[in-house]
Write a structure and sequence with these properties.
The protein has 82 residues and is mainly beta. It is built from no helices and 9 strands. A hairpin with a 4-residue loop joins strand 1 (5-10) and strand 2. The mean pLDDT is 95.
């Protein structure tokens, strides 16, 4: 799909996820928030919590201790510490 969102989650040692998603829930330091298709561009720091993402197959999550995320043009990149 041309308008599909993609998500890449990186830790210092490995790529934790890379693929198409329909929604992403991020534990921002100023509060948790959801990213849906065509979200405004943003760079944010992440705090301890669950980074949850939905794909066509279902929902999955990664427990993180900190990190940052960039959202731009339907692509979410999260660099996280576990």
């Amino acid at each position: 799909m041309a308008n599909q969102m993609t998500l890449d989650i990186y830790s210092p040692s490995e790529t934790l996820f890379s693929g198409e998603v329909t929604a992403v829930f991020l534990p921002g330091t100023k509060g948790s928030f959801e990213v849906l298709q065509n979200h405004a561009s943003i760079i944010t720091s992440l705090s301890r919590g669950e980074l949850v993402y939905r794909t066509q197959e279902g929902e999955a999550s990664v427990s993180i201790s900190s990190g940052f995320a960039k959202v731009e043009n339907n692509h979410i990149m999260a660099c996280v510490e576990l």
